[in-house]
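Hey team,

Filing this mostly as a record. A colleague (T.K.) asked me to run one chain through the structure pipeline before their review meeting, and I want the input and output archived in the tracker in case anyone asks later how it was produced. No errors, nothing strange. Just documentation.

Input sequence:
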Amino acid sequence: MVEFAEARDWGPYHTPKNLAVALSVEAAELVEIFQWLTPEQSAAVMEDDGTAHRVRDEVADVLAYLLQFCAVVGVDPLTALSDKIDRNESRFPRS
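Output structure:
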């Protein structure tokens, strides 16, 4: 993602604020697909090729912006996830 953005001279636009906003917008576009579906309809969303394509595209957009955001602010996303899981293990012990 970093190379992709650099090749297009997007650096001046890829500020932490702009990337966080873009990430939020793309997440909202993913939510929009499910907005008025029943729980049963939402569970079956990947069964329709057109809707599944939209879901995959929005997931890709969310992931792309998240990875670009992490690169700009210097966060290793896998380390951040691992650390968060460790904290959650303490906060939410197994039953």
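Quick notes for T.K.: Residues 13 and 19 are 8 Å apart (CA to CA). The chain is about 75% helix and 0% strand.
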